[in-house]
Amino acid sequence: MTITDDIVKSLRNPTPLYAVAGTADLAAEKLREVPALIEKIREQAPEHIEKIKGTDPKVVQDRVTAGAKDAQARLTETYRDIDLKAFREKPDFKKLGESVQDLALQGVGRATGYAVKAREAYDELAERGKGAVASWRGETADQVVEIAAAVEPDRPAQAAEPKPAPARKTPARKTAPRKSVKSDTPAE
Hints:
This protein is mainly α. It is built from five helices and no strands. The longest helix has 59 residues, at 93-151. The protein is flat and about 95 Å long.
């Protein structure tokens, strides 16, 4: 398959456009929820502000310290998984290589999982977009019928179909005959 065929095939694929339409539809849906969320926040704000005012800074500091210790413990555990201690005492490159390879494979596995989730989300947005476009087309068709009925109130809305434009023939152009150009040099 040539590059041109690939380009034509990709330009004819409506899936990316449906995914964009699905994203727009999802965003519109989420934006419709914003006023209710703002109202909920407005109602709960005084209560949360009072909780914050009544919080002891010592308690917050203790929570932050506990979180930092937890993070340090997880980091230490990760280093132990790599087995750096064994590497320092007695260099075991085979064991270190296996540990690094295991970590790399875990990374590849996670990346593959994220790619699968991204593809599933893309497909879901494309399906949503396909439905949204169909809905939008139906609404547009209804609006066109309403406009046609308003413009031509004598005709029923169902009969308001556009008539094909009559074909116009363009008259043929008349061109003047070409004049021959004479040269000053004699012909041999």
